[in-house]
């Protein structure tokens, strides 16, 4: 294991450039850049494919459900599927090597993209029943599984000190990927003339590149000495189930509730934005389904570009400094505060002529903050957790808790529209109540970290 002193002038110069964003030692440059590129390609793949999710769902008809209700119901079904798949993932983790798990899961998703391209409306047949819902469920599982597995891997590699310094920089790759994927999808739709469904043949390319990088990091790590900051010996796996680990540890349980509330709030906002967009672009029966799908894909692709750009600026120039000077308190509490302000602004704009513009701008600010500050915080929170529990517990929370939140967001829509006849203002008021709870959980996490800080310091000194 390297001591961090590297004589290569290129590496030293690179560390000085990266020092503009965070504190980094020359011996940490190779691994950090490799992980940054890996998550960049992963997010590029997701955001290239993401417009197809919204456009396909916009033309999916299920009984008398509105497009908003179809979207919400599909999100709820994601949680059911993920809960069913979690024991399979835990079993694969137990019987496969780490390299085989990382590469195998990614290659599975690479292979499935072309299969959904074959199911697109108008190709093999006019409409394959429930194909849009199936794709929505699958792309959601892809997003949370691949990204959650990546950050679990990163937390497995780094010590707490190194992770706190370098995770904000690695997350710049995720923000860059969001921008690149969104921009590529806009160019391919507008200038090349591809349909949103054709993007499903493009998305596997960056995902395959990410998989090659992961394989290379794992295979050539010892030879290239990429990991100077890793914990030297990984302890034996925790034999308990994922949920036993989560429920038996107050700190891990609080992380789960934090992630759950974050995603419930965000998904509620996404559902409202989807409804506003469908109303604005003409979701009525006078608009052809293919035109509605194209308009939806183009609108979302542009929104994703702005979210990605703002998130990238926050991630590159603000997050590491916030962590350095504001500590984890700032990282944990700022995202719910931004959501509180943005949901208040969106709720106040309902009924006005510029409501869609306000909702879009506020959701852009909220999503960009969550994609940068909140996502970095939720990964750093795992650094002190015992490594033997990491893969099972973190994967369970980052997948199932996220999709259970989607399920409750679905119930929010169904109950609100079908039973209570609630308007958009009522949905925003409900979201504000959830945000207050989210803030409260953030405060509890900060207190828990303070209570356990000395214990974690002792554990890390022992590991090193």
Q: What is the CATH third-level topology name?
A: Growth Hormone, Chain: A
Can you identify the CATH superfamily? MFS general substrate transporter like domains
CATH architecture: Up-down Bundle
How would a crystallographer describe the biggest sheet?
none
Low-confidence runs of at least 5 consecutive residues: 222-235, 460-464
Q: What is the residue-averaged pLDDT?
A: 79
Number of strands: 0
Shape call: globular
Order of helix and strand elements from N to C terminus: HHHHHHHHHHHHHH
Distance between the termini: 11 Å
CATH level 1 name: Mainly Alpha
Strand content: under 5%
From the helix content, strand content and strand pairing, which structural class follows?
mainly alpha
Quickly count the helices: 14
Radius of gyration: 22 Å
Count of domains = 1
Task: Tell me roughly what share of residues is in helical segments.
Answer: over 70%
Spell out the blueprint of helices and strands:
Layout: H1 9-18, H2 29-58, H3 67-95, H4 98-118, H5 131-157, H6 160-192, H7 199-202, H8 204-224, H9 242-247, H10 250-281, H11 289-349, H12 355-380, H13 387-419, H14 424-463
Model description:
- This protein has one domain: Growth Hormone, Chain: A.
- Mean pLDDT is 79; it is low at 222-235 and 460-464.
- It is mostly helical and 464 residues long.
- It has helices at residues 9-18, 29-58, 67-95, 98-118, 131-157, 160-192, 199-202, 204-224, 242-247, 250-281, 289-349, 355-380, 387-419, 424-463.
- Helix content is 80%, strand content 0%.
- It is built from 14 helices and no strands.
């Amino acid at each position: 294991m390297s001591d961090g002193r590297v004589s290569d002038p290129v590496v030293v110069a690179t560390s000085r450039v990266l020092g503009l964003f965070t504190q980094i030692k020359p011996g940490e440059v190779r691994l950090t850049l490799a992980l940054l590129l890996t998550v960049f390609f992963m997010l590029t793949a997701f955001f290239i494919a993401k417009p197809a999710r919204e456009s396909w769902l916009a033309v999916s008809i299920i009984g008398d459900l509105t497009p908003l209700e179809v979207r919400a119901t599909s999100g709820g079904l994601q949680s059911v599927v993920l809960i069913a798949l979690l024991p399979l993932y835990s079993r694969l983790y137990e019987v496969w090597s780490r390299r085989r798990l990382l590469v195998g899961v990614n290659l599975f998703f690479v292979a499935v993209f072309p299969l959904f391209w074959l199911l697109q409306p108008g190709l093999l047949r006019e409409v394959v029943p429930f194909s849009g819902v199936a794709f929505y469920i699958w792309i959601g599982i892809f997003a949370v599984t691949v990204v959650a597995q990546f950050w679990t891997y990163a937390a497995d590699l780094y010590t707490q000190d190194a992770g706190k310094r370098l995770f904000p920089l690695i997350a710049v790759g995720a923000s860059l990927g969001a921008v690149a994927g969104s921009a590529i999808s806009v160019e391919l739709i507008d200038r090349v003339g591809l349909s949103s469904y054709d993007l499903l043949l493009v998305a596997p390319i960056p995902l395959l590149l990410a998989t090659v990088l992961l394989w290379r990091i794992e295979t050539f790590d010892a030879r290239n000495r990429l990991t100077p900051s890793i914990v030297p010996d990984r302890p034996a796996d925790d034999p308990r189930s994922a949920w036993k680990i989560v429920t038996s540890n107050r700190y891990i349980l609080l992380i789960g509730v934090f992630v759950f509330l974050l995603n419930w709030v965000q998904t509620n906002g996404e559902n409202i934005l989807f409804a506003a967009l469908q109303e604005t672009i003409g979701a009525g029966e006078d608009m052809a389904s293919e035109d509605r799908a194209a308009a939806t894909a183009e609108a979302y692709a542009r929104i994703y570009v702005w979210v990605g750009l703002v998130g990238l600026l926050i991630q590159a120039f603000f997050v590491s400094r916030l962590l350095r000077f504001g500590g984890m308190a700032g990282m944990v509490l700022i995202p719910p505060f931004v959501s509180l302000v943005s949901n208040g602004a969106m709720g106040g704009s309902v009924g006005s002529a510029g409501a869609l513009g306000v909702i879009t701008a506020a959701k852009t600010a909220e999503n960009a903050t969550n994609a940068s500050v909140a996502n970095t915080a939720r990964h750093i929170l795992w650094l002190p957790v015992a490594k033997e529990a990491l893969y099972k517990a973190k994967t369970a929370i980052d997948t199932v808790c996220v999709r259970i939140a989607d399920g409750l967001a679905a119930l929010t829509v169904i109950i609100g529209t079908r039973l209570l006849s609630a308007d958009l203002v009522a949905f925003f008021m409900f979201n504000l109540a959830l945000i207050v709870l989210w803030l409260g959980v953030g405060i509890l996490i900060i207190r828990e970290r303070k209570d356990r800080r000395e214990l974690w310091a002792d554990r890390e000194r022992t590991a090193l």
